[in-house]
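lol so apparently i was supposed to do this last week
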Amino acid sequence: FADDNVFKIGLILPMTGQQATTGRQIEAAAKLWMAQNGDTVAGKKVQLIVKDDTSLPDVTRRLAQELVVNEKVNVLAGMGITPSALAVAPIATQSKTPLVVMAAATSSITEASPFVVRSSFTLPQVSVALADWAPKNGIKTVVTLVSDYGPGIDAEKYFSERFLFNGGKVADKLRVPLRNPDFAPFLQKVRDLKPDAMFVFVPSGAGAAVMKQFAERGMDKAGIRLIGTGDVTDDDQLGDMGDVALGVVTSHHYSAAHPSPVNKKFVADFEKANKGLRPNFMAVGGYDGMRIIYDALKKTGGKGGGEALLGAMKGQIFESPRGPVFIDAQTRDIVQNVYLRKVEKKDGQLYNVEFDVIKDVKDPGKSRK
Ligand code: DHB
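anyway here it is w/ 3,4-dihydroxybenzoic acid bound
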């Protein structure tokens, strides 16, 4: 393959540091996609260049700059956390390079550049369904506990507003630092306030610590229920959370237990290729992000540069392991089902078992404007 017949994807992920599980999941999923679909598309050799940003946005920006200028990548992808995605958005705009956001989930990211396409989800999208479920299921008062940055603020706002609208009461709104969080003082505060439930958003990888300290403080025994977006019962960690997680209800767009043939095959193939590692929602964002890139390359034949590629990403419709999805051509955000799930034991292992679905949910963060 001559140089101009190579198609380069610059995949920037947190491979080390606090968000390393996100990087591990997405890299594995991208490699699985390529193993299943080959590395030649429309006569071009697809090359995946993986870079570790350690989830520090200054590093993400520098790596993106290098990938665009030196490597001349055709697509930027990855983005483990919101600050990384926001740091790279101006580079995508200036260089007209599509930026496929596979993890970061603050609503406003797609508005930071017209070159952003998102394959993950948004926190407003998954938070509202739980605020409809809770008051119908004995939860009248809630304390919210979120990571103090973009997605946490989105989750707090969209959950609280809808919960209030439905007649619920929010006794307090607590925000924990993203870096090296110490949950103990916040959990103590929740314990003292004795709400019916604590609503939690923490990023992927932090859920097990919350769950452990929730149990250590006997909060479940004190009658406080834990609910949240599915980030807290992340499939990457759920298997090791223990019985404290049993019965926890969350809303989210993906569960490894989603009972579709497409998902069963995805989970089996992923586990086989990764020593039994269970795929989580990050893996699905990575896998679907690769499909979006492949299909856009197929459609354009690689001609017309970044703008043509971006155009071919808009409006894509396909069946993901999570269920049916489409990329809204107006917002470039993903439209998808949101599921209510309860943690149950299946074949001796903990899973998020889906018990209700809200179909084709758009990001409510956009329809406000
Ligand atoms: C973000 C990161 C996560 O790990 C997650 O589960 C949700 C959102 C973010 O930074 O946008």
